[in-house]
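Take a look at the protein record below and tell me what you see:
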Amino acid sequence: MELWITVLIWSLVGSVVSLLAGILLLTKKLSLRFVQLIAVPFAAGALLAASFLDLLPEAFSYSDTKAIAVAALGGFLLFFVLERFLSWFHHHHEHNEKNQLHPTIGLIVIGDTLHNFIDGLVIGAAFLIDVPTGIVATLAIAAHEIPQEVGDFGLMLALGMRRRNVLFVNLVSATATVVAALMVIAFGSALGSAEPYLLAIAAGFFIYIAASDIIPLIHAEPRAKIANIQTAILLAGIVMIGLLINVAQSYATTTQEVKYSSATQVR
């Protein structure tokens, strides 16, 4: 299968999965509390596992260790700066004044679209390395986007936006992921040796989101029982993505061996 078709399919899958969670919120079949309890800590585990068990090892195997470490640190700091100076990254636009409603929603949409675009760049860069790495990155992003999308849906509803309009706006915003992923594939040949550094920057992005946005929520939980459950779910996310990475890498190795064996027999 052509690489761009694979990327198109998986970027669509990632977008649809996160949007489905928002749709369930709209239909009142999913509660924000459930998302906070289950999806948020799982997303943290998925992001950490994808970073430390897949993206960084892949990047290290392609380039100088120190340079990759600097790129990962750069990615971490880049998103720290973005979050520090672009307040919409955290959706801090909850105004009650009626005349501020539309600008507020506009900022939320802009922030979400840019976030989705960055996700697409990460997905595309991961697929340039190999398909298993791309799939793992896509699933980790989808896990993170579930609470993100639910939060966006909930905030827009709270600001008085109609359910139909909330769905339409988020659907359009989600296309940024697909567009960005395909752009990376289209210009992949121009990236050349930059691919491992993009993976390292993506890993820095994942680590920052998990460490800055998600894990503090677990620490802030005043009830020990709930915090323990969330910690267990975080660890479960690490284990599940770790197992997925092993399966994906084993499949990739087996496929390469079969192709090499077939090519040898033809000769």
Q: What stands out?
A: Confidence is low (pLDDT under 50) at residues 88-103. The two ends are 24 Å apart (CA to CA). The chain has one domain: 3-260.
